[in-house]
Amino acid sequence: MIRLEVTWAAANLILSVNGKRFRWACFSGSITEAFIVSTEETFDVIVVGAGCLGVSTAYYLQKNSPDKKILLIDRTLAAGQSNTAMSAAAVRNMFASSTNQLLTDTSIKYFEYVQNELGHNLFFEKTGYLWLLSEEQFNHESVKLWMERMKKSGINFKIYTKDELKKMLPGLNANFAGDEEAELMHLQEVSYGLFGSDCGVLDPTRLVEHYFEEFKKISHIKPRFGLEVKKLLLEADPKLDLPGEPFVWQNKKVNGIITDKGTLRADVVVLAIGAWTNQLLDPIGIDGMTKMKKRQLFVIHAEDKKELHDLLDVKGFNELGCVPFTILPSAGVYFRPQLQERGFWIGCGDTIGRAYKYIQTDEDMVPESAYYENSMYPVLSKYFPAFQGARPVNSWAGGYCYSPDRIPFVYLEYGVLVVNGASGSGIMKADALGRIADALYRGEAEAELYGGKKIPAKTLSIKDRNVEIESVII
């Protein structure tokens, strides 16, 4: 006997056949799409999270395992709409850790290939990165080690003196002698500039779009959005169908996810959800080893202020004829050029005083106008008086997912493949991390990164981790 129930819900037709529910999206009286919403489906891999790390991982998994059924899901309504979209969208290979240098340098070279050879414009602009440093900072042992490692790895960088910087950066205030406000704010004078020419900025939406579109071309399964994961499906391995299992004496494995629209099964579940990872790992007893901090960006337009246009259009650093992504010596304040909008994005990598959180919440996606006014603006306008009187025309916030050593995690445990802990540099490592995750899934000893360079597949794992502590974090 077949039991049939039909109900309408907004623009959806819900059909229930013997307890299995199907949804059709209906517009203007026509049925356009149908999919099961509360029945157990089975896949080879489910990738949770469609940000830059999720779409990169999904693409390489499908590319190298073409016969596998790989489902990509996200709780938002489109790919790349969460923390990826809220980032400063800058990319650099100037790290102190040789591991981070490898992850970023190969990823950046792939981005160049996508833009220049494949013709997919990522709006990747080599503005360069410029660290403004005091005498004390420049001569610190950590900076010396940083430069030594970059030189050894073939990372291009150049050192500018104070006099050179003052000629190139109009209005730069490099000296604070007699400035009581600067002294009160503990601002350090500018003595050197450390510049990386292969660094720059891009459009994160375009980057996500590249991986997402390439994944869809080869995928057997349509990605699903607006799907929230409630918990991971942890079961006994093998199942004995005993009431209350899994018990402590049984082996265990994650065999899928439980969502707000039903249970989906898979042999492997990929978690590429950054600052929300702990929310799913904690209930099954896996330590994700990460925590998060809120980060904010504020948009300043040059408008009719000549001094800001002059700063935006400085010559000598890059072929674009614009100011680099610039990090100030004090308080973690930085700015990046936004040439299309004729303006700047202003951010801050604050440390003490900005709380670590265990799980990101909706509150962390809300920018604080007072933070710019009282914390960032006083520092910014001291070093570059051109910003005096400038007020944000837009702002947003998101979360950084930090690992203890500031180097990403990629590990496969109990059926869960975790890709997280990028520590604010997920975009610039997205290609390498996707390739490493794929190598782990396929059981390869090494992952081949773009350009042919290789890295042990378990280097970024927890149990077999082999990395240096990263000291250059913004």
Largest sheet: 9 strands, mixed
Whole-number average pLDDT? 92
Supply Rg.
24 Å
Instruction: Determine the structural class based on helices, strands and strand pairing.
Output: alpha+beta
Q: Count up the domains.
A: 3
Please work out how many helical segments DSSP would assign.
11
The CATH superfamily name of the largest domain is FAD/NAD(P)-binding domain
Distance between the termini: 64 Å
Highest CATH level, the class of the largest domain: Alpha Beta
User: Which architecture of the largest domain would the CATH scheme give at its second level?
Assistant: 3-Layer(bba) Sandwich
Helicity range = 25-40%
Oligomerization state = single chain
CATH topology title of the largest domain: FAD/NAD(P)-binding domain
Proportion of residues in extended strands: 25-35%
Form type: elongated
Quantity of strands, as a count: 25
Uncertain segments are 1-14, 16-38
Itemize the secondary structure elements and their pairings.
Blueprint: E1 4-9, E2 12-17, E3 20-27, E4 30-36, E5 41-48, H1 52-64, E6 70-74, E7 90-91, H2 98-116, E8 129-133, H3 135-138, H4 141-153, E9 158-161, H5 162-168, H6 180-184, E10 192-196, E11 200-201, H7 204-218, E12 224-225, E13 229-236, E14 252-259, E15 262-271, H8 277-281, E16 291-301, H9 306-312, E17 325-327, E18 333-338, E19 343-348, E20 356-357, H10 369-383, E21 394-402, E22 409-413, E23 416-420, H11 426-441, E24 446-448, E25 454-456
Parallel strand pairs: 5-6, 5-15, 6-12, 8-17, 15-23
Antiparallel strand pairs: 1-2, 2-3, 3-4, 7-11, 8-10, 9-10, 13-14, 14-15, 16-19, 16-20, 16-21, 17-18, 18-19, 22-23, 24-25
Helix pairs in contact: 1-7, 1-11, 2-11
